[in-house]
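User
Take a look at the entry that follows and flag anything odd:
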Amino acid sequence: MTTKSACGTLDLMPAELPSTMRTPLNTALPKPGSQSALREQNQRRVIAALMSGGPQTQAELSRQTGLSTATISNIVKVMATSGIVSTTPTTSSGRRALSVILNDKGQVAAGIDIGRRHLRVVLASPNYRILQEASVSLRPGHSAVEGLRAASDLLDALLANGGIDRRALLGAGIGIPGPIDRRTGTVVQGAILPEWVGINIRETFGERLQVPVFIDNDANLGALAQVTWGPHSAVENLLFIKVGSGIGSGLVLNGSLYYGNVGVTGELGHTTINEQGVICRCGNRGCLETVASTSTMIELLGRGSAETVDTQRIIEWALAGDTAALRVIDDAGAAIGRALAHVANLINPETIVIGGPLTSLGDILLEPVRRGLARHAVPLIGETTSVCMSSLGDRAEALGGAAVVLAHPGLTPALASSA
């Protein structure tokens, strides 16, 4: 049995984002004072000049930005000290000069994925190269304070490990497994992390990290990652579904992430599958999460088992051909396919990408999903909709967070010095 199936190979080179995707999410920006605002503005002009024009001498930067040569010299010294730029001796018009080059580590975006049991942080450069990446386990039921502390500590560790000055950090894109009210940046009822409900993550994380913060549902960031880092750059209509402790989805419609009225979209896990089913955490009965989430799989396979059952153990059992594990996954896949069919009938996506911790199952999960989709979708939609595993694995949400930061216009490192 084939166990690997994806829409394409893993390729961490970016797609060109449609202009509609360049609209920033909610941010927490530092409050500028008059003098610091002037310094930041001048530094931004220098960095923009280097990004657009490549390596230049200080005299060329002065001409391009309109800043005095003394100001340029001070700015370059600050950025060189913090590792944002490098300088090399050169000649210009027969005179000795310094060529200023924007370093790969001179601008860094952080992507942070916070789940019920895990935390992953990635650092990426403006050319979409992954510089650092790490993940750690979190205590189930952790509070927002615990999650914030763990994310901040891991971020600092990655910056230190990569030799990256913290002042080079452009911002952080943070994914949370639950609905986010985009008007306020607040976690609302229905999140996998009920301890986080009512928390304004944008303000809380912004105060701790001291950089612009972009907050979104993790499935939305997973969808963005598929068309940015994955092999789906040409796909205009894509549905990403993350199957984990909860089940959520992100929609790319006509080349843009879809947010609806207040941002609470893609709650596929709360689609009713069995009206006589068990009560879901959302208060309804028989939701998709109650029959197809990894939490449900763990509960079912843990009954009567002397072994500790977790997601990795379920994957191992399924790949080894364990009958019970295969049955649970088959039932879950069929239910997921049925729920996807309802969405596909409504929006007619070109591609459906499945992400989350079960991606290594490949066709073991894909086959029942495709079967459920074909059974419940309009025939033509079922025949023309591609269903595949994410080539980004469990990195997708964090990569999407970094992509949000990199797509934001006008962000520059928070440098501290006089210009």
The first helix runs from residue 34 to 53.
